[in-house]
Amino acid sequence: MVNKPRILVARAIFPGTIAQLEQHFEVEHNQADVIWPRTELLARLKDKAGAFTTGSERIDAQALAAAPGLKIVANMAVGYNNFDVPAMTAAGVVATNTPDVLTETTADFGFALLMATARRITESEHYLRAGQWTKWAYDMFSGADVHGSTLGILGMGRIGQGIARRGAHGFGMNVIYHNRSRLVPELEAACKARYVAKDELLRTADHLVLVLPYSKQSHHAIGAPELAQMKPTATLVNIARGGIVDDAALARALRDKVIAAAGIDVFEGEPRVHPDLLAVPNVVLTPHIASATVPTRKAMAKLAADNLVGFLVHGKPLTPLNPEVLKSA
Ligand code: GLV
Q1: pTM for the complete prediction?
Q2: Pocket test for ligand 1, best of 291, 296, 307 (most atoms within 8 A of CB)
Q3: What is the CATH number of the domain that holds 272?
Q4: CA of 289 to the centre of ligand 1 (A)
Q5: Which residue, 46, 93, 140, 182, has most beta carbons within 10 Å?
Q6: What's the pLDDT tens digit per position in 119-142?
Q7: What is the extent of the structural domain holding 93?
């Protein structure tokens, strides 16, 4: 009998996903969800043909050198800044992510965070739970309107478009966006979104949502100079990646009321959170959960597993990031 390919599943995952993978592979898993030190991750990758990762495991030239038999790494995330894709391509290793299956769920969450931030929901809940609510007051937790306001979106991929559609069609918002490239007219019309320069986006948005991928170019795309251009009444929402916002600068801007409030799901160096952000009241903080609904997390896990099966068993991954590797194989 031919030996099954060996794969590593780097973090705990649905038991059904492990069962699916075990039909095809010899699976080394981590259902205890231990955060392996880097050296241990690399040692476990050594004899594997495939790996199932989350956004937390870095696959770079060092990892690839430690795993000469590796053929594919399937990330259970749409973002893949934990992958050095050029290094993977150079090593002939297929990289895959999980696009599409999380778009609507993540756009829902972007909107939830925007609403919670603009309407000061968590701040007011903390006040209530602390027993501080003793009387009605005309200005108690007055926030910013969402309906009819100007929604700015930085990064207009699938999730950005989902947020734009919700804003334009659900809340009658005036939607503006900035992106590396402009959408085709039909997509702009479907989102009722108008393309503007980044400066205009910063100056005009009442609510600015960040949905761009992390890269060297987008590192600190929102720092002190950008925050200073925003309206003092504006809210900022980041559901993209830590590092796109300069968290220390954001905490200062929130403290000094340079902007009114922020909703942040992703952090520089997460799961560590900048202590200055924890100290300001006008920020809603969530632990990187934008795609976290049961059906969507199941769909993401299934797509990552299907990529491993698709490639290692049938020679065809479903959502490759570097399809050129397949051509040269
Ligand atoms: C989550 O952050 C993802 O990239 O899927």
Answers
A1: 0.96
A2: 291
A3: 3.40.50.720
A4: 9
A5: 93
A6: 999 999 999 999 999 999 999 999
A7: 6-99+294-328
